[in-house]
Amino acid sequence: MFFGLREREARSKPEVPSGGKPRLKRKKKETTVNKASLKTAPIGVFDSGVGGLTVVREIVRQLPDENIVYFGDTARVPYGSKSKNTIIRFSEQIIRFLRTKQVKAIVIACNTASALALDAVRHEFDVPIMGVVIPGARAAVEATRRKKVGVVGTDATVRSGVYTRVIQGMNPQIEVTEKACPLFVPLVEEGFKEHVVTKEIIEHYLKSMRDGDIDAMILGCTHYPLIRSKIREYMGDGITIVNPAYETAMDLKILLEKRELANDRSGMHSHYEFYVSDAAEKFRCFANTVMPFDVPETNVVNIEEY
User: Fold this and answer.
1) Which of 106, 110, 140, 218 is catalytic?
2) Are 91 and 113 in contact (CB under 8 A)?
3) In the annotation, is 221 catalytic?
């Protein structure tokens, strides 16, 4: 008993270096999370370019109280033709940048990055990260009656087979047909949404799906919702067109509420920031055609520094 008492007394005494004054032990600084500040922290969203704005648009609509920081990797677009390792590296750099903005959650708005990098970055960073593949896949599983689902996306997304794996993981009886439609992205970005060439390319890519027996189709690229009306017109009313952007916004809402991270300061003016790796003015002009508000400023970031 006395040994224990003396031991405790000895531990409480300051250390005395030889020939010096007592050196007091410093307590480790305790870090406390201010929940109120965390709730008002922004959501980080990133994409290979401008397509992720369709996800931001849905988040703004479904979660109007949330603040958002968006990054579009316009210098290195497209991601669809790049390797898995490259896409993981790009995603890591962007997430490191978004962390400097104190984001409370991150949405990978790019289907290609969601397919190839999501698992890797989830293990690397201590912030909630979600992609667009699972929400879109689940909506298609719920929508199909004939158990026939079509997926249109970039070359990399289709090559990865991620939608087939996720959908069949939810329901092994569903047959999935995936089709790469790489020209849809430049058509959208160059402002050809209403041009006759867009109708011709839609027919070129989707004729086999329309002639098949799918009854649900996933727009597996964030650019594709911008030509959704044209795709629906060609495919007909018998097919449910799934927009993963909307489904992702709804899943994000559930995630924030579950983790008590939702911004409950309703009525406050939400703040939106936009960053790109190149061509800021071109991005801003395009963003103004997508977003339900004018984007006043877009800043360029040297993403290779992160």
Assistant:
1) 110
2) yes
3) yes
